[in-house]
Amino acid sequence: MLPGLIAGKYQRTQCELHVARLLKNSAANWIQASARHINAASQVITLNTGQQISFDTLSIDIGSAMNKLELNKRIPGAAEHGLCIRPIDDFATQWPAVLARLRQKPQSVVVVGAGASGVEIILAVAKALALSQTKAGLTLIAGTRGLLHNYSPMAKRLAGEVLQRAGVQVIDQHCVGLTSHTLSLHGGLRLKCDLAILATGGHAPTLLAPSGLSLNDYGYIRVNEYGQSHSHPNVFAVGDVSASTPYPHPKSGVYAVRAGPPLLRNLLASANRHSLVAFKPPKRTLNLLNLSNGSALAIWGSWAACSRLFWWWKNVIDKGFIAKQVQRIAQKEMPKPAQKVSTS
Ligand SMILES: Cc1cc2nc3c(=O)[nH]c(=O)nc-3n(C[C@H](O)[C@H](O)[C@H](O)COP(=O)(O)OP(=O)(O)OC[C@H]3O[C@@H](n4cnc5c(N)ncnc54)[C@H](O)[C@@H]3O)c2cc1C
């Protein structure tokens, strides 16, 4: 929903879930803190508050991050001068002030990274600026692999046409450096750049490296068909932080959400020493990209099409997901009817 938030389609409150309220009156104990260290062998997690929590069974579902050291290795200056789209929460917090600044005078905005999120972000920025009739130069740096490199030629062509209509210049070169107002490209070109948004993809969270868990070459947790760590059977992981070895798949919210119910089943089974149930994620999923022009680009394998209907559908799915959780919160917080007292 982040592109919709950037483009002014959604308010922040429409995109957020209050996990603490969702867990109210449940058996779960909510601790608002960040895990800093995981020791899989001694079964202890250390939080940023210093608190240590020991566990019998652990589920790690912390997504991916943008590692500033890694970013700076590939694009010197990126960590200091770029605006990272992850953590999404931080980006959403900073966006209103960034937009207000952009609206003050004509600026050049560059998004680095032309995967699905980079395409959605530059189109959302274009929409946000068009709404306030702010003139801006808009550029998408697609790298040598080009626009939507993981997708079909049909999807690339359609996205390219939409970007062109929105006035976005797409450059198929790697970004190799960033300063406060200049972006350098591999071919030697230097672009004026007042705002560089980094949508270059996620990295594995750094706390995994010293955890003792078996990780893949990119630092993500290797899991089997039960979502269970290869090295520590009492540790589970799903979503972006995991790398399924029997069923490798791209990192996306669709896969993360679908892995939720089987994860719950297997956590309960593991705690009760019952047999685990294998989970086979779908080979492909439908991708719906918000084009911020009232339509969405639907991509299914090699097929792709743009339609207002797809945007309507995406909006229904995203808002429906949030609405379902909000309804659960409301049900939890509803005062319980007073018990009838029998007088006879
Ligand atoms: C701009 C953009 C648009 C996208 N659009 C789509 C889309 O349309 N469809 C789609 O399927 N996917 C989309 N994605 C991808 C999608 O957001 C991710 O694949 C999905 O959120 C992964 O879910 P997850 O639960 O694994 O991780 P996340 O959603 O990242 O959740 C991880 C949670 O863990 C918390 N956390 C992180 N580290 C710690 C720690 N150390 N201690 C405690 N908590 C921690 C985080 O705060 C967060 O709440 C998009 C991504 C971006 C950036």
Question: How do the helices and strands line up, and which of them pair or pack?
Answer:
Layout: H1 2-6, H2 12-15, H3 19-22, E1 35-39, E2 44-47, E3 52-54, E4 58-60, H4 68-74, H5 78-81, E5 82-84, H6 88-104, E6 107-112, H7 116-131, E7 136-141, H8 153-165, E8 168-171, E9 175-178, E10 182-185, E11 190-192, E12 195-198, E13 221-223, E14 235-237, E15 242-244, H9 253-258, H10 260-271, E16 287-290, E17 296-300, E18 303-307, H11 308-333
Parallel strand pairs: 4-14, 5-12, 6-7, 6-12, 7-8, 13-15
Antiparallel strand pairs: 1-2, 2-3, 9-10, 10-11, 16-17, 17-18
Q: What brief labels describe this structure?
A:
single chain, 344 residues, alpha/beta, FAD/NAD(P)-binding domain, 5-stranded parallel sheet, globular, binds flavin-adenine dinucleotide
Structure overview:
- The structure is a single chain.
- Helices cover 33% and strands 21% of the residues.
- By secondary structure, it is an alpha/beta fold.
- The chain has a domain at 68-198: FAD/NAD(P)-binding domain, CATH 3.50.50.60.
- The strands form 6 sheets. A 5-stranded parallel beta sheet has the order 5-12-6-7-8. Strands 1-2-3 form a 3-stranded antiparallel beta sheet, with no helix packed on it.
- It is globular and about 60 Å long.
- The mean pLDDT is 93.
- Residues 2, 34-35, 61-63, 85, 87-88, 117, 120-121, 205, 207, 239-241, 251-254, 256 line the site of flavin-adenine dinucleotide.
